[in-house]
Amino acid sequence: MKIIFGFLATILIVSLAPYSYASDPSPLQDFCVAVSDSAAAVFVNGKFCKNPNMVVADDFFLSGLNKPGNTSNAVGSRVTPVNVNQLPGLNTLGISAVRIDYAPYGLNPPHTHPRATEILVVLEGTLYVGFVTSNPANPAMKNKLFTKYLNPGDVFVFPEGLIHFQFNVGKTNAIAFAGLSSQNPGVITIANAVFGSDPPINPAVLTKAFQVEKNLIKMKIIFGFLATILIVSLAPFSFASDPSPLQDFCVAVSDSAAAVFVNGKFCKNPNMVVADDFFLSGLNKPGNTSNAVGSRVTPVNVNQLPGLNTLGISAVRIDYAPYGLNPPHTHPRATEILVVLEGTLYVGFVTSNPANPAMKNKLFTKYLNPGDVFVFPEGLIHFQFNVGKTNAVAFAGLSSQNPGVITIANAVFGSDPPINPAVLTKAFQVEKNVIDYLQAQFWSNIG
Ligand SMILES: *[C@@H]1O[C@H](CO)[C@@H](O)[C@H](O)[C@H]1NC(C)=O
């Protein structure tokens, strides 16, 4: 056990060391031990720092992670977090950890960390784990599922913002530890955020997004609120930290001849750069909304407009037929600011899992008219629904040249290959025939 713990520590150290491009707010001092000063009238993006003269070793110390978490709940797993909320010394340092316990056939259901990549080490048991890539550039392709069976000592990485899960396929308890690349990674349990938000998402949105009958969605809203077992805290005040990736992943190769990608694109010789590299036309033309959801996203990111490379921004035009829906999705690498030009949209986003497991993921909604602006924070599930009888048009800016998009229904029910139905049956707490039905649908990405 000691050896395996040592192994985990080594991974955490290595993960911080030579290959990470530190960017974003690097700490500006040795440490900034968190204090929750409720008397203060202002908030910062993260926690306040404790007076360095008052800092003690115990600010960097926590015990009890040898104790199993209680897995007596609907999904049969328990995440015990060690982030800045439990260990104040992590403040500003860009890393945290979790212990995960799994009962036999226990599931850590499909979820994302909006602000962190996760590296997981199995200590006991056998886990079936996987993650799903964001929507492919080619709409005829599906979101790709990567899975692996893990045994003790095995290590697996879940890239930042992507939907992932772990399922104990053994007859015994399983244990894993994981490091996360943020002191406050956040977690969004897909089933809870989509079907169990407070207040609920309008059933018309979910009916269209999941292409099912309305009574099934109503049932899901009533029963979909699982016990929130992932206590990794919501982080309205976190420091964004660490390198912002520009694609789902960039697997390292030592042989440069075998390299096909960098984290982003190669740069054009500056002597060859022309004005047209920064130019694109045609965004005045409506997108084709003749599809199952009645909307179309026309992207203007580094793939369409090469001059955006390295600049951290992109745009989209979104067209909505009457009652057209831009279904629940996330951008793993960007915040979005949306401006309505025509029509009336019902829009919303759902917060990540609250610290208090008795609370639900909170839904923020708004009706938007022409000229109205709304913000969808990085990594959170959001949607727009045209509630008018006419077409609607919106433009949005996104804070990455390659923000990525994960359409929740497609990634969960339409991946290639499909996620094991046992995982989805447990995660969504429905009968297997419902999952079979959903996985049999054709899940087209609209942009
Ligand atoms: C585990 O949780 C269940 C359900 O909340 C509870 O009944 C039980 O007492 C807990 N067990 C322990 C050891 O805390």
Work out the oligomeric state of the chains in this entry: single chain
Biggest beta-sheet profile: 5 strands, antiparallel
Total discrete domains? 2
End-to-end separation: 47 Å
Q: What ligand molecules are bound, each kind once? A: 2-acetamido-2-deoxy-beta-D-glucopyranose
Question: Care to describe what's here?
Answer:
The chain is α+β, with helices and mostly antiparallel strands and 447 residues long. The chain has 7 helices and 22 strands. It has helices spanning 2-16, 190-195, 203-210, 214-223, 408-413, 421-428, 432-440, and strands spanning 34-35, 48-49, 77-82, 96-102, 107-112, 118-124, 127-132, 145-150, 155-158, 163-168, 174-180, 188-189, 295-300, 314-320, 325-330, 336-342, 345-350, 363-368, 373-376, 381-386, 392-398, 406-407. Helix 3 packs across helix 4. The longest helix has 15 residues, at 2-16. 46% of the residues are buried. The structure holds 2-acetamido-2-deoxy-beta-D-glucopyranose (NAG). The site of 2-acetamido-2-deoxy-beta-D-glucopyranose has 2 residues, from loops.
Produce the secondary structure layout.
Layout (H helix, E strand, L loop, with lengths): L1 H15 L17 E2 L12 E2 L27 E6 L13 E7 L4 E6 L5 E7 L2 E6 L12 E6 L4 E4 L4 E6 L5 E7 L7 E2 H6 L7 H8 L3 H10 L71 E6 L13 E7 L4 E6 L5 E7 L2 E6 L12 E6 L4 E4 L4 E6 L5 E7 L7 E2 H6 L7 H8 L3 H9 L7
Antiparallel strand pairs: 1-2, 3-4, 4-11, 5-10, 5-12, 6-9, 6-11, 7-8, 7-10, 13-14, 14-21, 15-20, 15-22, 16-19, 16-21, 17-18, 17-20
Helix pairs in contact: 3-4, 6-7
The protein binds 2-acetamido-2-deoxy-beta-D-glucopyranose.
The site of 2-acetamido-2-deoxy-beta-D-glucopyranose (NAG) has 2 residues, from loops.
